[in-house]
Write a structure and sequence with these properties.
The complex is a heterodimer of chains A (205) and B (260). With 205 residues, chain A is of the alpha/beta class. Chain A has helices spanning 40-48, 89-94, 102-114, 130-143, 160-174, and strands at 2-11, 14-24, 29-33, 54-60, 63-64, 74-77, 148-151, 179-184, 193-198, 201-204. Chain A has a single domain, classed as Rossmann fold. Helix content of chain A is 28%, strand content 29%. The model of chain A has no long low-confidence stretch (mean pLDDT 89). Chain B has 260 residues and is of the alpha+beta class. In chain B, helix 1 (2-38) packs antiparallel against helix 6. The chains are: A alpha/beta (205), B alpha+beta (260). Chains A and B meet through helix 4 of A and helix 7 of B.
Chain lengths: 205, 260
């Protein structure tokens, strides 16, 4: 589904991230970990089609990121909050949905209960913790069943228990064929494949 | 966002209401001045009734003439006798040869300077057989008032177009810019690109038609209950609609990239 070939990121003529080849199929959980300033966020932005200043090519279902410029098949959850603080949890989850079907409604409620947001569905987002806010973004991404969900700095928002819950929530999309690519500073458990960024190269473990 | 569109609909409705009131007020006042002209007939006197008949045949088809009545000399004598209680002088009065009179009533709306000159030219051809009496001063005063009123109306009309354009473009841009955060989150959370443009289009349809339909409904309700005597031309509502549509187009152009 996702094919990255000869990928490189440069800063002042110096290449700081190289991927010779990365193939990611459907229904996979991928973790890319490495230190700060190794280009993890830019890699995710490049896959999402928000950043074009890279070498090599990124293909999703054999089509370049440019093809998906206006019809994105990926959802990026980055470090900044993409929530309407004065709106309810429910409103924030259904923002991108053209129409909420009964099945989606039921699934959202199930996922909210898993994330311990079941009794907070009507609360304003500004009253919630940052991990709850991230859960909302993950539920919102998962319910849309995109091809790839990209999560930057996954371990930043969750402790170990919440991390397991977050992955369980992601399973809903994974079971429908979506893949998860999460970056982190340390190696995360419960992922199908782990990549480490070392000496500017992305190495499969 | 829903509050925003509702507010804009209310504002546009109120402006249109003001615009329609300007139009109704103008029409109403113009009718009053034109009725003043209609209420002042021209009297033509002639000793030869056949000349008046010829004149009547010549002018009765003119669109600015509403009615022509020929009053026989005997009727005039009778009227004088009854009006001034001259029963004792009946025989004396009968011995006089009285002229025949012709009363011309005008369509106030159409009897303007060109028409008046045309009629005077025609009457000149029949001089000295006919003598005419017309309150030109009253007619001139009414014409001047209509002229001032019309100028004021055109200024008001233009002012309303500019005001409507300014207000609706300003509010459109204001509320769209206000919703930028929402759309940023909408797109970053996976929402469809192009939905904002689509929604802008649908909002434009609502803004253009709902206030106009409400104004039309109000107008026809007043007409139905016979509370309004003034007619409003359909084209007037067309101009209002066009103004709102143009404001949406300008707002769309001004917003440009924001509508992506």
């Amino acid at each position: 589904m996702l094919k990255i070939e000869g990928f490189s990121l440069s800063r002042e003529n110096e290449k700081f991230m190289l991927i010779n080849e990365m193939l990611i199929g459907s229904s996979m959980r991928i973790n890319i970990f490495g230190n700060n300033d190794t280009g993890r966020s830019l890699l995710l932005k490049s896959i999402h089609g928000d950043y074009y200043n890279y070498g090599g090519q990124i293909l999703i279902k054999d089509k370049s990121a440019l093809f998906y410029k206006k019809k994105k098949k990926t959802i990026l959850i980055d470090n900044t909050s993409h929530l309407l603080e004065n709106e309810s949890v429910w409103k924030n989850i259904i923002i991108p949905l053209p129409k909420v079907t009964a099945r989606q409604k039921q699934k959202i409620m199930e996922l909210c209960v898993m994330a311990q947001l079941g009794d907070k569905i009507g609360l304003k987002v500004k009253t919630l913790s940052s991990s709850s806010k991230k859960f909302i973004e993950i539920i919102r991404a998962v319910i849309q069943l995109p091809q790839i969900i990209l999560i930057d700095d996954f371990e930043n928002y969750f402790d170990d228990i919440n991390m397991i819950t977050a992955l369980e929530i992601c399973n809903f999309a994974i079971n429908s064929g979506a893949s998860i690519i999460a970056t982190s500073k340390r190696k995360l458990d419960d992922f199908d494949v782990n990549y480490r960024i070392q000496d500017s190269k992305v190495v499969k473990l | 966002m829903k509050k925003g569109i509702f507010f804009q609909i209310v504002v546009i409705f109120i402006i249109l209401l003001g615009w329609n009131l300007l139009h109704i007020g103008y029409q109403f006042q113009k009718d009053v001045f034109e009725n003043n002209i209609s209420d002042s007939p021209m009297m033509i006197l002639s000793m030869q009734e056949d000349v008046l008949e010829q004149l009547k045949l010549r002018i009765e088809k003119k669109n600015y003439i509403s009615d022509i009545i020929i009053i026989q000399d005997s009727v005039i004598a009778q009227t004088l006798i009854s009006n001034y209680d001259l029963d004792d002088s009946k025989e004396t009065l009968k011995s006089y040869i009285l002229p025949t009179a012709m009363q011309i009533s005008f369509v106030g709306e159409k009897f303007q300077i060109e028409q008046k000159l045309e009629l005077e030219r025609i009457l000149l051809e029949y001089t000295p057989e006919v003598i005419h009496y017309f309150d030109s001063a009253k007619w001139q005063i009414a014409q001047n008032k209509i002229s001032i009123l019309t100028n004021g109306y055109y200024w008001g009309f233009g002012g309303f177009i500019l005001f409507m354009l300014f207000i609706s473009i300003f509010f459109r841009i204001h509320f769209e810019m206000k919703s930028n955060t929402f759309w940023k989150i909408f797109h970053s959370s996976g929402g469809h690109f192009g939905k904002r443009r689509k929604q802008f289009f649908f909002k434009s349809i609502h803004l253009a038609f709902i206030p106009i339909i409400l104004n039309l409904a109000l107008y026809y309700a007043l007409k139905y209950f016979q509370l309004l005597s003034v007619e409003i031309d359909y084209r007037f509502f067309g101009i209002e609609l066009l103004t709102i549509v143009i404001s949406s187009l300008f707002a769309g152009l001004a917003l440009g990239e924001n509508l992506k």
